[in-house]
Design goal:
By secondary structure, the chain is of the alpha/beta class.
Length: 164
Amino acid sequence: MDTDILEVTVVTTERAKHFYSPQDVPVTLYSDADEWEMWKRRSDPVLHIDLRRWADLMLVAPLDANTLGKVASGICDNLLTCVIRAWDLSKPLLFCPAMNTAMWKHPLTAQQVGQLKAFGYLEIPCVSKKLVCGDQGLGAMAEVETIVDKVKEVLFQHGGLQQS
C-alpha cells in the first residue's frame, strides 16, 4: 500500500458536522450547500452525479439510523443520499452502521440493513462497546482499523490496489 495513493473526498451531512470541525478534515469536503452552489441551470455540473462518476468505491461511515432509513427507502434529500441513490452498482459501496443499541435492535433496522445488502452494498458490522450516549452495547461503528482493512481488501479485489 505504500506506493498506492488513494484520493479521498468526504461528503458530509449537516447533522454530522456536530461531531467534528470541518476545517480539521484534510481532504476535499462537500456538503449540501455545495450541491446547490454548483448547479444554476441545465448543463451545469451536478455534484452528486460527478461524485458517483469519479469514485471507485464509496464508504458510508458512520451510517446512522436516519440515513439508513432514507437509503433503504430511496429517499434522497441531501448530497450524501443523492450520491448513494445515483451510485453505480458495479462499484463497491460499503456501509458501517452506528447507532444506540435500542435503535440497532429495532426490527426495522434488520430489514433496512437487509435492503442495503440486497442492493449489493457491503456491511462492515457494528461492534459492542461504550456508545456516544454512555450506554454499553452493540451499535458502535466498527473500529477504524477494521474499516480500513476491509476497504483495502475490496479495492484489491476490484483491481484498485496493489497487494502489499
